[in-house]
Design goal:
Elements: H1 3-16, E1 20-22, E2 34-36, H2 38-56, E3 62-64, H3 73-79, H4 81-84, E4 86-91, E5 98-100, H5 101-127, H6 133-139, H7 141-162, H8 166-175, E6 192-195, E7 199-201, E8 211-213, H9 219-224, H10 226-232, E9 239-248, E10 263-273, H11 278-294, E11 303-307, E12 317-325, E13 328-337, H12 341-350, E14 356-357, E15 364-365, E16 368-375, H13 376-387, E17 388-394, E18 400-406, E19 417-421, H14 428-439, E20 445-447, H15 453-463, E21 467-471, H16 473-478, E22 480-485, E23 491-495, H17 499-507, H18 509-514
Parallel strand pairs: 3-9, 19-20, 19-21
Antiparallel strand pairs: 1-2, 4-5, 4-6, 7-8, 9-10, 10-16, 11-12, 12-13, 13-16, 14-15, 17-18, 21-22, 22-23
The structure holds glycyl-adenosine-5'-phosphate.
Glycyl-adenosine-5'-phosphate (GAP) binds next to β10, β13, β16 and α13.
Length: 517
């Protein structure tokens, strides 16, 4: 199955099993806006909690806030969003579709690099054990030709972005013969800048002065509260402020399901450090955040860093953590060393000092900031796409049967244990209910007595429930149940009284968090 087919199936599965619905579904949905269903909201909450506990419980010097979505318009002037939070857009005159010029070029570069990978794979197959990849990359004429072209385009692209040269971006698209995927033509308009912030009016008078914005990032709520938090929580540098919440961007090219949305949620942390120490802390957070991802994704090859070639004018280091989504490696989190840019700008625009007084040295300074910024919805997509498997497994009679299973880390699973009476009679539902009441306050449980046990197992597999507990005739005799493991499908017999302890060990977030201590 191709990755694209897999992605389509995943999207259908997410809808069918109550994870994600298109927004306003009965009106045929809305582009790039989605609603989370009963299982989706549980998974999303669990991811958010895991991030929050990682930040605030494992780091005594990180505290949280929850700032408002609406902020004073001057905030966005100071941050640079009003003037420069733009995407370069280009339209195809035949399909009338709009694209991000930078993405068209990046996709072109990615495609060319894909060609090199293909050449490598072909040669590795041909030469077997004697294949020397480095030598091949340095000497193969076809590879060298592609590489030369990619490097040239890449250099031109970076320069054009740096100089905000929209004409040159268009020229690169023409020179690379990039065609519209829908019309197939190269009939492009000029490239124009488009601001991504959604605006609305405060109060009833629609004048420029009353225009306010839906925040495009949660970070500014942290910056403007820097002194409030530092003073009230008596924080000493280095310290961090964490926040999760909605952000809004008028993404023009919003594709790929919940990867790029117009309304989404961010989980951001700003770490305030002494100037001069920022690169040390940048490395620290780069490493820490990768460890967090690896605690959920066992397959290391699925994650990688992508250091930025082109740094924003306020940054002195930046990297993305990328995950191999069905559509290829894409950013899931950004780690940025933002210098003192934001605090200085707010100092300038508000007229309020944004300095920290260091009681040990007697110095006052504007701190530097390391930011970790991850999209919760994107992390959700990561978990879902990594978890989705189609397998052939033996059914009750030992015959092969298809199953779709979500191998979600147990601590994040929407339902952590399903309680299933083998049959709907003979006192089995009653004892199953007793188990439900015993467990449900600690471990999120679902009780299900409808359909055959095989079908119920498949239903739980499809929503990623890591454990199924089944009551049967023997339960009535010796108060034992079967405990079925989602991934291995193995069943063991355990005493009812042992279940709370066993499940706590297997599904609690504590275990994940403890691995960092
Ligand atoms: N404060 C820094 C900041 O907002 P960003 O790279 O623009 O940086 C950070 O966004 C993260 O937010 C991204 O790595 C991504 O996970 C998520 N994100 C950004 N735009 C998004 C969108 N349109 N839909 C879903 N997630 C998005």
């Amino acid at each position: 199955m191709s990755q694209q087919d897999m992605f389509k199936k995943l999207i259908a599965h997410a809808k069918e099993y109550g994870f994600i619905f298109p927004s306003s579904d009965i009106y045929d949905g809305m582009g790039a806006v989605y609603d989370y269903g009963p299982y989706g909201v549980e998974l999303k909450n669990n991811i958010r909690t895991y991030w929050w506990h990682f930040m605030t419980r494992l780091h005594e010097n990180i505290v949280g806030i929850d700032s408002a979505i609406f902020m004073h318009p001057a905030v966005w002037k100071a941050s640079g969003h009003t003037d420069a939070f733009n995407d370069p857009l280009i339209d195809n005159k035949d399909s009338k579709k709009r694209y991000r010029a930078d993405q068209l070029i990046e996709e072109y570069i990615e495609k060319q690099e894909g060609k090199i990978d293909k050449e490598v794979k072909k040669a590795a197959k041909r030469f077997g054990d004697s294949f020397d990849k480095d030598m091949f990359l340095k000497t193969n004429p076809r590879v060298l030709k592609i590489k030369e072209k990619v490097d040239e385009v890449h250099q031109r692209y970076l320069k054009a972005l740096d100089e905000n040269n929209l004409g040159e971006l268009r020229q690169i698209i023409l020179d690379c013969e990039i065609a519209d995927p829908i019309s197939g033509t190269r009939n492009w308009t000029d490239v124009r800048q488009f601001n991504l912030m959604f605006s609305t009016q405060l109060g009833s008078v629609s004048e420029e002065a009353n225009t306010i914005y839906l925040r495009p990032e949660t970070a500014q709520g942290i910056f403007v509260n820097f002194l409030n938090v530092q003073k009230t929580a008596r924080m000493k540098i280095p310290f961090g402020i964490a926040q999760t919440g909605k952000a809004f961007r008028n993404e023009i090219v919003a594709r790929q399901f919940i990867f790029r949305m117009r309304e989404f949620e961010q989980m951001e942390m700003q770490y305030f450090v002494k100037p001069g120490e920022e690169l040390k802390w940048f490395e620290y957070w780069k490493e820490k955040r990768m460890q967090w991802h690896l605690s959920l994704v066992a397959d290391q090859d699925k994650l990688r860093y992508h250091d930025h070639d082109k740094l924003a004018h306020y940054a002195n280091a930046a990297t993305d953590i990328e995950f191999e989504f069905p559509m290829g490696f894409r950013e899931v989190e950004g780690i940025h060393s933002r210098t003192d840019f934001d605090l200085l700008r707010h100092q300038e625009f508000s007229g309020k000092k944004m300095q920290y007084y260091d009681p040990e040295t007697g110095e006052s300074y504007v701190p530097y900031v390391i930011e970790t910024s991850i999209g919760l919805d994107r992390m959700f997509l990561l978990i879902l796409s990594y978890a989705y498997r189609e397998e052939k497994v033996p059914n009750a009679e030992g015959k092969p049967e298809d199953r779709v299973v979500l191998k979600i880390p147990p601590a994040l699973a929407p339902v952590q244990a399903a309680i299933l009476p083998l049959v709907k009679k003979d006192g089995l539902p009653e004892i199953a209910r007793e188990i439900f009441d015993l467990l449900n306050l600690d471990v999120y449980c679902q009780y299900d007595e409808k359909d055959s046990i095989g079908r119920r197992y498949r239903r739980q597999d499809a929503i990623g429930t890591p454990y199924c507990i089944t009551t049967d005739q023997q339960t009535l005799e010796d108060r034992t149940v079967t405990l079925r493991d989602r991934d291995s499908m193995e069943q063991i017999r355990v005493k009812i009284e042992e279940l709370p302890g066993i499940l706590k060990e297997k599904v609690s977030m504590r275990k994940l968090l403890q691995s960092f201590i």
